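To close the section, here is one more complete example, presented without commentary so you can practise reading it yourself. The ligand is acetoacetyl-coenzyme A.
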Amino acid sequence: MSIKNITVIGSGTMGNGIAHVCAQFGYNVSLVDIAQTALDKAIVTITKYLDRQVQKQTLTEEQKQQTLANIKTFTSVKDCAPSSDLVIEAASENFSIKEKIFKELDEICAPHCILASNTSSISITKIGAVTKRPDKVIGMHFMNPVPVMKLVEVIRGYATSTETNSLVFDVSKNLQKIPVEVNDYPGFVANRILMPMINEAIYTLFENVAGVYEIDTVMKLGMAHPMGPLQLADFIGLDVCLAILRVLHDGFGNPKYAPCPLLVNMVTAGYLGAKSGEGFYKYEAGSKELVVSKMFTK
Ligand code: CAA
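Output:
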C-alpha cells in the first residue's frame, strides 16, 4: 500500500506544522478544523514560514506555491477522510474528544486507512480500543516546531501491527524526519524524560535554589540545550506540562512524578506560558523579547 492522501485533524500549532511538512513533501493534505477561521489562520501561518524558507533559499517560489496547492481545508472529516490513506489527529489532548474522533474515523475511513494520533501522552492502546481496527492505530508524536524538529516518536499500541508501523516509518522518512519506535507506556519516551526535568527545574525555583534566569542559563550554557527548561515549559504550555505530569503520576503511581505545587498554582491562576502572555517569562505581543516575571526574579 502506498500513502498519497493524508488528513490532518486540528489546525493548531501542531496540526498546521504537520500539514505544512506533509504538503511540502508531496502528499495531498486535507486539513480539518471545526471553524473556518482557525483554518484560515493556519494557512496564514504556513504561508509565513514558507515565505521564510523562500527568503533563505531552502525552497523555491514554485515549491512554495505547490506546497500551498497541496493543502485543502475542510470543516468536516466526512468530506475528506473517506478518501484518505492516513489520518493524523492533532486535536485537543482530551481522551473524550479523541474517542469521539476515532470512533467516527473508524466508521467513515476506508478499511486500509491508518489512524494516527499526535498525542503527547494519551495511551495509543486506549485510543485503538475504541475502534474496530486497533492494528491500524498508532502514535505519530511530532515535536514543536514541527517543520524544524527532526524527530517523530512512533508509538506502537498493544495491538498495532508491524505493517502499520513500517508504513508510518516510511511516511516519516519521506517527511525528512527520523522516526523512533517506542512502546505504549505513560509519557512514551520523550515526555517520560522531558517532563521530570521540567518539573525538577520548577522545584528548583520553588525551593529558591536559584531564579528563572539562573536555572535556564545553567541548562542552556551548561548542557547546550537550545532553551532552558522553564522557557521550554512556557513554550509547550504550562497546562500541557501539568497534564502530562498527571498522566505519568497516575500511570506509574510513583510519587517522583508528582507535579510541583508552583506549577499547579500557576496553571490554576491562568499563567500558561507564551500562549497566555505570561508564565515563567512575560511575552509582549508580537515580540520575541522575554522578560522574567517579577515574582520569580531573585
Ligand atoms: N515553524 C516553522 N519554522 C520555525 C518555527 C515554526 N513554528 N519556529 C521557528 N522556526 C524556524 C525559523 O524559521 C528558523 O529557521 P532558519 O534558521 O532557517 O531561519 C529556525 O526555526 C530558528 O528559529 P529562530 O531563529 O526564530 O529561533 P531560535 O534559533 O531561538 O530557535 C527553536 C527556535 C527552534 C524553537 C529552538 O529554540 C529550539 O529548538 N527550542 C527547543 C524546542 C523543543 O525542545 N521542542 C520540543 C518541545 S516538546 C514537544 O513538542 C512535545 C511534547 O509532547 C511536549
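Once you have examined the C-alpha cells, check your reading against these statements. Residues 17, 49, 52, 56, 120, 143-145, 147-149, 190-191, 226-227, 232, 236 surround acetoacetyl-coenzyme A (CB under 6 Å). The chain has a mean pLDDT of 95.
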